[in-house]
Design goal:
Radius of gyration: 18 Å
Oligomer: single chain
Largest sheet: 4 strands, antiparallel
Structural class: mainly beta
Shape: globular
Number of strands: 7
Amino acid sequence: PVVWARATLLGALNSQRFTFFQQALDIKGHGDNVRSGDFSEKGDYLLTASQDKTAKIWDKKGKLIYTLTGHREGVNSAYFFPDGQSVITASRDKTARVWPLLDQIYSGYKKWTSTV
């Protein structure tokens, strides 16, 4: 009975042609596969991690703000700290790096740091 109910629900949803997601941006700029993405707390910025050994910060319109470089191998994941003051990246080079942001992310971007 449970399997039938799930199948019936999915069939009903498909027949109504609900659209749950809509593509908002097509961001290009990494030189290899993108492994993860994270939005800042307010959704103003996107942080991506790539096998090209970088993490990138983008504004909500898809404009590249800054590229974080320094890992020797691909970056598997990258996340904003909840306070917007730092970013953390984890790489296949067996390191995790904390990148303090010079300006608070929500008050604009003038300078970003790429040092640990």
